[in-house]
Amino acid sequence: DQQVKQNSPSLSVQEGRISILNCDYTNSMFDYFLWYKKYPAEGPTFLISISSIKDKNEDGRFTVFLNKSAKHLSLHIVPSQPGDSAVYFCAASVHSNYQLIWGAGTKLIIKP
Amino acid sequence: DTGVSQDPRHKITKRGQNVTFRCDPISEHNRLYWYRQTLGQGPEFLTYFQNEAQLEKSRLLSDRFSAERPKGSFSTLEIQRTEQGDSAMYLCASSPPRDEQFFGPGTRLTVL
Fold first, then answer.
1. What is the pLDDT of residues A4-15, one digit of tens each?
2. Which of A42, A49, A102 comes nearest B42 by C-beta?
3. Is the CA virtual torsion A77, A5, A7, B89 positive or negative?
4. CB A50 within 8 A of CB A66
5. What is the largest CA-CA distance in chain B?
6. How far apart are the CA of A36 and the nearest CA of chain B, in angstroms?
7. What pairs with residue A4 in β-bridges?
């Protein structure tokens, strides 16, 4: 049973445009959500997080939106840059727990 | 060096052999995690240490797997009698007492 789902294996976006990556979850106990970026041959790198008490968190070009009723979160990158090409993972946890439950990732390709 | 390091980066072994991986976390982080990642999937939690205490092990961690963190600093993950199904990327992460985890580059294991 996949508790965190990223239904788009890949996404192609023109440089300068907005990239929107989506993530759905099933466990209503999750109250902390994170996005990580991963380049080939490297470990995941933390990007941005959001607590369930918020519905939006912004950090520079990256914004995460959380819709608790729909059990859905999204990562917006604007404007998209070539260096943003990577695999993006959504992860979730119950705050009192330490385990991160991960989605399968979405490969983002930024076209010049 | 302020990041998480892992050694070796790559390991090729024959089925039935034992292998050991090392992880050096960020020095001030008291939490250390091991994950396994296979192609096309997100990382899967294996085990977690708080200081030197191993507080949780996933059911994915069979009896052939053992992890230690003897002095609350570096950690080792040993796989005995390796099987082809053990081929994966093994990721180590560390964190302070909150959920943001910082990952090392991983050890890619290939079992022939």
1. 999 999 999 999
2. A102
3. positive
4. yes
5. 39
6. 10
7. A25
pLDDT tens by residue, B29-77: 999 999 999 988 999 999 999 999 998 888 878 899 999 999 889 999 9
Substitution target from A88, A98, A101 for chain B, most B beta carbons within 10 A: A98
Q: Which two tokens stand for residue B87?
A: 């081929």
Q: Is the pLDDT of residue B99 over 70?
A: no
CA distance B67 to B34: 9
Cα–Cα separations (whole angstroms), residue A69 to A25, A27, A63, A90, B107: 11, 12, 19, 18, 39
Identify the closest residue of chain B to A90 by CA–CA distance: B42
User: Is the model's pLDDT at B19 over the cut of 90?
Assistant: yes
Look at residues A86, A74, A84, A88 and name the one whose alpha carbon lies nearest to residue A25. Answer: A74
Alpha-carbon distance values, A111 to A18, A22, A31, B17 (Å): 12, 19, 34, 45
